Inverse folding.
């Protein structure tokens, strides 16, 4: 009986220490590093999630933007400065395309990121200046390009972006032999398209919709597996079928959350629970859909599989196209 009393006393003495250790996290505000500029669709998505997750985790989540180099600058900042209170808005460029293009991007895409969950996908849309192309029809345009000498220009938001590599993939599969023209972001590329300096431009759907609806450009096709509700009359590239080697084609930009490798398994689980709860919230899902994105979720393992598969896919595109960036 005496021994039991002593054990109980010892357990009582240790309980505040254990409870204190559990409550030490979070002991400061959280941080979400976003490798894109403030104000764009990606930034808006990040801020929606940060606000919701901060409430669920019990401390604010501050969004920090570090844009440039296809997301590489933000990823380097995350690896260098991150800790167990830091998340990264990982995505197709920084975590799949840049490692395929850069021999040493300054981070290891496997070692330096712990997947939390996918958040949204965003289709690309193939835009055209109909005066330059002479047609508004995707099939007709691709037939004309095939019959032309190599080098007809297609624009993107920059070297190493998902719009660049998606355009390269379409060109490879369809035998179009087009010449990539990189711009410093989607806005100058759109300006060049409207002016007729380039014929076509691959852009993310949310940023392209205002110009499509305003009639400044036309949408030839979307890169999602099916047509999108925002453009019901625009075909998916996969609909063009065997004639162009595009049957079943799908290539979307994806975004998710990754934690720093310093995070414990227990705290990673807390991040996952907060993110998944936020993604399940009908109001959050509605706001994400209204911005032209498709809410996803799913947790760490599906997101890790997606990242690995995408790295392999874009590495293959880079090899086959002998693609190099400065």
């Amino acid at each position: 009986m005496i021994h039991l009393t002593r054990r109980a006393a010892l357990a009582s003495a240790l309980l505040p220490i254990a409870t204190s250790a559990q409550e030490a996290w979070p002991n400061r505000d959280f941080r979400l590093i976003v490798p894109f500029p403030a104000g764009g669709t990606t930034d808006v998505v990040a801020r929606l999630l940060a606000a919701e997750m901060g409430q669920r985790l019990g401390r604010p989540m501050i969004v920090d933007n570090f844009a440039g180099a296809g997301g590489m600058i933000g990823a380097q900042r995350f690896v260098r400065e991150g800790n167990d209170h830091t998340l990264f808005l990982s995505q197709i460029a920084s975590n799949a395309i840049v490692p395929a293009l850069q021999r040493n991007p300054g981070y290891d895409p496997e070692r330096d990121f712990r997947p939390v969950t996918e958040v949204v996908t965003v289709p690309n849309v193939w835009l055209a200046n109909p005066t330059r192309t002479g047609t508004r029809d995707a099939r007709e345009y691709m037939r004309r390009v095939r019959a032309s000498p190599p080098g007809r220009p297609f624009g993107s938001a920059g070297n190493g972006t998902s719009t660049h590599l998606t355009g390269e993939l379409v060109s490879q599969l369809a035998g179009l032999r087009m010449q990539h023209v990189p711009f410093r972001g989607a806005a100058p590329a759109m300006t060049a398209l409207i002016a007729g300096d380039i014929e076509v431009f691959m852009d993310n759907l949310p940023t392209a919709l205002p110009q499509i609806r305003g009639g400044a450009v036309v949408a030839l096709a979307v890169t999602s597996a099916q047509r999108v509700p925002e453009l019901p009359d625009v075909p998916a590239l996969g609909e063009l079928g065997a004639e162009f080697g595009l049957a079943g084609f799908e290539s979307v930009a994806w975004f998710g959350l990754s934690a720093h490798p310093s995070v414990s398994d227990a705290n990673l689980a807390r991040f996952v629970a907060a993110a998944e709860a936020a993604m399940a919230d009908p109001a959050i899902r509605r706001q994400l859909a209204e911005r032209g994105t498709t809410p996803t979720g799913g947790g760490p393992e599906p997101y890790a599989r997606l990242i690995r598969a995408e790295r392999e896919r874009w590495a293959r595109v880079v090899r086959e196209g002998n693609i190099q960036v400065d």
